[in-house]
Every structure is written in structure tokens, then in C-alpha cells.
Model the fold of this input.
Amino acid sequence: MVMMRNRNLKLLTFLILLASLTFLLNYTHTVVTATWFPKHMVSELSESFKRLMNYPQRPCTCSRCIGEPGVSPWFDERFNQTMQPLLTAQNALFEEDTYSWWLKLQREKQPQNLNDTIQELFQVVPGSVDPMLRRGVAGCRRCAVVGNSGNLRESQYGPHIDSHDFVLRMNRAPTTGFEADVGSRTTHHLVYPESFRELGENVSMVLVPFKTLDLQWVVSATTKGTISHTYVPVPSRIKVKRNQILVYHPAFIKYVFDSWLQGHGRYPSTGILSVIFSLHICDEVDLYGFGADSKGNWHHYWENNPSAGAFRKTGVHDGDFESNVTATLASINKIRIFKGR
Ligand SMILES: *[C@@H]1O[C@H](CO)[C@@H](O)[C@H](O)[C@H]1NC(C)=O
Ligand SMILES: *[C@@H]1O[C@H](CO)[C@@H](O)[C@H](O)[C@H]1NC(C)=O
Ligand SMILES: *[C@@H]1O[C@H](CO)[C@@H](O)[C@H](O)[C@H]1NC(C)=O
Ligand SMILES: *[C@@H]1O[C@H](CO)[C@@H](O)[C@H](O)[C@H]1NC(C)=O
Done:
């Protein structure tokens, strides 16, 4: 017992040293190249330390943990544990090339200053990471990522989906009326203003920002309600509680695009963004409702027109490459894919 503790202590000391070194290296790097959000400079050191203690190496007790290196070189080349999936007041720094790449996604004409926008944003929503996503104690976090494919119809996956620790859904996905096939629980719902629908009580909204206006919309929709139109009409007010709003990190979108999609398509779909997000916050991931149904139709499970093909050929995403990534993840047993019918 004493020996064990001693070993753990040594391991901890080593990890702290390693973490400090990594931090120092990153810090130097950041000062040279990055665009800063200046407000938190002074508290940066202690904050980063806290972040490191909370974030990257979550102790995992599953029989097989996603983050484990050495299983597949393909995976290890792409998976970068230090990338942070959520935007916080402390990590709101953008490399110049990340910012300019992100600004081009939806070709925003005259974006409001990003520093100002982020400052306004974190006056409204929490600037630190959802405590639910942090993990100090060992455990096995099992996640269901539920896509919107018609292959969920008559799948009877509902109870299986609901049995996970986290259930992630995206865009317009309804559950009411479809519980037997898609489940009824949601812990995190990924949306952008144009795909927003009201969420259930206790559901965390994860805003995926594709432009500066999306961040402004969060502020507006939870306060004065002045923004009602982006490139289409959007809800001017939402009922989601401010403390339940999280923001997907734009640098993480670029990481998904560069590392995982290898530059395919114009930018990643919400589907693949949810999958890679889950690789970083979960120990086990089960995918439902991705891809075509067994007849090759691409449609949403709540739509009756199976030939709609709604979300395959949108022009901006490379659906085939994205499917290949998820299929490859499954082939190396990092995730499981439930194909439905
Ligand atoms: C944000 O602020 C930093 C430091 O004040 C500045 O260097 C940078 O250009 C600003 N970025 C934007 C997008 O305004
Ligand atoms: C992983 O991400 C960190 C933080 O963005 C970056 O500094 C580092 O270069 C990345 N590592 C690899 C191997 O790409
Ligand atoms: C939301 O959370 C509160 C507090 O944990 C709980 O009492 C309530 O039943 C939850 N509501 C739903 C719809 O799950
Ligand atoms: C993904 O694409 C590559 C290259 O086209 C192919 O060799 C591989 O078999 C595909 N993987 C899966 C799982 O479909």
C-alpha cells in the first residue's frame, strides 16, 4: 500500500513537471505568435495549471479507453489530446491563421471585432468549462452521439441510447414522439443559430460558431433579442439558461478540418464535429443515426420523404470523407457504430 502510494506520488510529481514544461513551451510559443485575449493575462499561470490538472489526462477505468495511444498509428497521428474542445475566457486565443480561416467559413463581410465579441459573450455565459465535462476522479464515461439519419427509424435503440452517461444530439433533432428509436435523454445539444430548436430542461447547449455573428447571437438571444436574421431568419430569443450554454472552440473546428478531414470539403459538418468532440470528452463512444439507411437513402428520421437527401450534398461538407473517418474509427475499435435499418 505504502509502495503504491509512493509510486503514485512519483507519477503525479512527474506529471506535474511534464505539465509545467508543456505549459512553459506553449506559453513562449503563444506570446510570439498568437492573438491574445488580454483580460486574463495575470491569472493565466494559475488558470493554466488548473486547466492542466483538470483536462487532458482524465483517469479512465473502461476496459478500453479512446485516448489510449499505441493502438493505431492512424489514430495517433490525428488525435491531439491537448486541443481544447470548448472556448473559455482563458483559452480564447487565436493563432492568426486560425482566425483568418474561421472568418472565411461563411464569408462574413464585416465581422465585429472578435476580442470585443468574446468579452461580451463571457459577460453573459460562463467563461469556464462545464464542471460536468471536467473529471477529477477515475471512471468510465460512456457517450452516445446521436445523428439525425433516417436509419434510426424502427431501430428500437431508445433505451440503449438513454443508458449512456452523456447523450449528444445535434441541430433540429426532436425526441418527442420518437423515444423508442432515438431515446429521450439529452445531455448536450450541438447547434448553430440557423439550426436552433428549443432544448429540454437541463440540456447543455453547445453553440458551434461558424462566424462572429453566431457569438453575437448568443448574447442577443439571451438578452435583448436584437438579432433575428443571419443569412436566414433565426430565433431572436431562446429559453436556454445562460449557465447552460457552452461554446465549441473555433480552433477545435480547424483541428477537425486539418487533422481529421485533411482539408476535405470546405469545413466540417456538425456531425463530424460532434464525433471528434466526443473523442475528447468521453472514454467510450457509440454512434447512432449516422449515414444512409439500408436502402441508401439520406434523410432525417423525423421526415417522411426518404429521398430528400437533405444533408448529404450540401456542397460545403465532404460527406463521403467524413463517413470514411467514422468508419475507420470503428474499424480500429475506437468507437462503435450502430447502423440501424
Ligand atoms: C485582440 O487583441 C490583441 C491584443 O490586444 C490584438 O493583438 C489582436 O489584434 C486583437 N484581435 C482582434 C481580432 O481584434
Ligand atoms: C497539438 O495541439 C497543440 C495545441 O494546439 C499544439 O501546440 C501542438 O503542436 C499539437 N501537436 C501536434 C502533434 O500536432
Ligand atoms: C433538471 O435538474 C433538476 C436538478 O437536478 C431536477 O430536479 C429536474 O428534475 C431536472 N429536470 C428534468 C426535466 O430532467
Ligand atoms: C477509407 O478510404 C480509404 C482510401 O480511399 C480506403 O482505403 C479505406 O478502405 C476506407 N476505409 C473505410 C473503413 O471505409
Remarks:
- Strands lie at 34-35, 94-95, 142-146, 166-170, 188-191, 204-207, 245-247, 284-288, 335-338.
